[in-house]
Amino acid sequence: MLKRMAKAGAAALACALVFALSGCASQEEYTPELGEPQLSPPVIGEADTLRVGVNTEKSPLAGRGSEKIIGIDVDIAAALADELGLKVKIEDVGTDADKALEEGTVDIVMGQETVDEEAGIWHSEEYLPTGVVLFAKEGSNAAVPTGAVTPKIAAQISSKSAWAVTNAFGEDALSSTNDLATAFSDLSKGNVDYVASDAVIGMYAANLQDVPVEIICLMDTASGYCVGAKSDATELQQAIQQALESIINNGTVGVIEDKWLGGSINMEGLQKVEAKAPAADSNAPEGEEGSADDAGADGEADASSSSSAATTASSSSSRSSSSSN
Questions:
Q1: Is 202 part of any domain?
Q2: Is residue 213 part of a domain?
């Protein structure tokens, strides 16, 4: 009985969070109640507003859809701003996050990778784990491949994932595809045993294709995405870290993951598949799939395709705005 009550309570909380993030289905837009601002200038650059930099070439973290900047990072930024009693303004800073922070055009930047520590940028704890992983069909009971039998693994051509497959299992294991849509379609049809991909991009691509998947093992060093701020902005750092912990612990980030990825990513305890042999004479490509632009069959799978059923937190709130540089 207690278990049923606990599950019912959790479901109610999840529904409330989805409602808060997505807005209701009626013509009235959901507007979160604005709390007392916890930060003000000079800690932030604009009164009552958290200015957030994203890279719109890095979907599903951020992209353009319906003439707005949308994506996982936009939703999380909006949740952070709400937690701090602030409005949110989204800026497209591209790959120049450090420059945007230094010039003061934004207060924080999203989508910073934990494995890419830059001098002058403070990094929060991660809000989304990632890394090159192997996906299998959900419920298939697929085991971690050992190499005793050559597995059939689909991966996007010329990607870091493809390199990881050949490095661990040899070229015969690799089934190259032009995009992840084809890779997950092949997995769904049973043409391949696994798909190798960046965890976040792969989850997004599988969700777009409506292919239920599960992560089997890690193919590379695990990393994650975090919030960045200027290294000397200690008061802002503390506030952001506390707000981030709050929206992770209360389930808001989990709801955002479910919206964009079809579920939460859990990389804890994953077995790592080691390379078959040292690759001193072989260099992995610098980029993974890069973004989810190739996730759809038409190559246009920016974040807009999964936002039709649920508007992002920032765009559903009359307190939010976005602009591009």
A1: yes
A2: yes
Residue 96 falls within a domain, yes or no? yes
Q: What is the residue type of 150?
A: T
- Structural domain for 214, as ranges: 130-221+269-294
106 in Cβ contact with 69 (< 8 Å): no
With tokens 């996007």, the residue in question is: 156
Task: State the Cα–Cα distance between residues 121 and 143, nearest whole angstrom.
Answer: 40
Amino acid at position 309, single letter: A
108 and 251 share a domain? yes
Same domain, 183 and 282: yes
Phi, then psi, of 161 in degrees rounded to 5? -65, -45
CATH (domain of 204): 3.40.190.10
Chain mean pLDDT for the chain: 81
Contact between 155 and 161 (Cβ < 8 Å): yes
**C-alpha dist (Å) from residue 279 to 132, 170, 273:** 17, 12, 14
How far, CA to CA in Å, does 33 sit from each of 20, 87, 251, 281? Answer: 10, 11, 19, 57
pLDDT tens, residue by residue, 257-307: 999 999 999 998 999 997 665 444 445 554 556 555 455 433 333 333 333
What is residue 17's predicted lDDT score, i.e. its pLDDT? 38
Domain membership flag for residue 80: yes
- Are 66 and 138 within one domain? no
Specify whether the CB–CB gap between 252 and 312 falls below 8 A. no
Residue 121: C-alpha distances to residues 52, 181, 199, 202 (Å): 14, 35, 25, 28
Is residue 159 located within the same domain as residue 232?
A: no
Q: What is the pTM of this model?
A: 0.79
- As for how many domains the chain has, the answer is 2
Express each pLDDT in 207-241 by its tens digit. 999 999 999 999 988 999 999 999 999 999 999 99
